[in-house]
Amino acid sequence: MKKLFLLLVVFIGMQQLNAQTEIELITKTLLDYIEGSTQGQPKRLETAFHSDLNLYYIKNDSLKTWSGKEYIKDTKEGKPTGEVGKIISIDYENNAAVAKVEIAHPKSANPYIDYFMLLKVQGKWTIIHKAFTKRKRGS
After folding, report:
1. What domain range includes position 59?
2. Residue 5 lies in a domain
3. Which pTM value belongs to this model?
4. Which of 4, 80, 88, 139 has its Cα between 20 and 30 A from that of 32?
């Protein structure tokens, strides 16, 4: 009986070691976005984005909206942009998360800063909204 109990404890412990943390799962979704947009992989964007996602930004002091579907359509398969992305922060509680990502081009001193809202649906994190801006020089 002791051996069976010990075996069960070891098995449960191994399962927990193999389970991905929520931060790892959120990171996977964000990397699908980063790699999809910078490396010309629209299928990865489709994986990361909720189908009703919109992107929000300010232009000439007015709120502008861009559909996620149009953003994906503008991503050319197999055509890298030359940009690189990195995750700045992730915060989550239960099934909701926010994240900040930087997308920079080596020829530009002002990288894009993306703010994401994510929800976990059926065990998968998905980006439901994106707002973006450009970092000003010296910020």
Report:
1. 22-134
2. no
3. 0.83
4. 139
